[in-house]
Every structure is written in structure tokens, then in C-alpha cells.
Design goal:
Blueprint (H helix, E strand, L loop, with lengths): L10 H15 L7 H17 L11 H9 L1
């Protein structure tokens, strides 16, 4: 059951935000809110469509899902 302060409820999103911070914010810090918004949008698209993951057999998350449902 979800409770306040239970870190296991949001482990997936915490992992994603850690990756986002390491790969986006630290490499190319935004200079404005508009740049931040565009950068996060671009990163989420990259993360889902282009970034390969070894545990998904070298495929991006979208490619993996498409192959699993085909």
C-alpha cells in the first residue's frame, strides 16, 4: 500500500530522474525555463525512442514494446 515516505513506491521514477539529472542537467544546464522545458521534452523522447538498454536486449523501450506486441 502506498504511504508517505515509502521509497519503494516510486523507485522507477526516482531512477528515471537520477538518469535525467546525470545525462541532461549536468552535461548541458539550461539557461531559462523555456530551455529547460524544451530540453526535458527532448530528453524524454530520446529516452523512450533512441536510448538503448541492455536489459531490453539492446533495444529502446518503444522498440522493445513494439516487438513484444507484434
Amino acid at each position: 500500500m502506498s504511504r508517505k515516505g515509502n521509497c519503494f513506491d516510486n523507485a522507477v521514477i526516482e531512477s528515471f530522474f537520477g538518469t535525467l539529472k546525470a545525462e541532461y542537467f549536468h552535461l548541458a544546464p539550461p539557461n531559462s525555463v523555456d530551455e529547460l522545458e524544451a530540453g526535458v521534452h527532448d530528453y524524454v523522447r530520446y529516452y523512450n525512442h533512441e536510448r538503448i538498454k541492455l536489459r531490453l536486449k539492446g533495444l529502446s523501450p518503444v522498440e522493445y514494446r513494439l516487438r513484444r506486441t507484434a
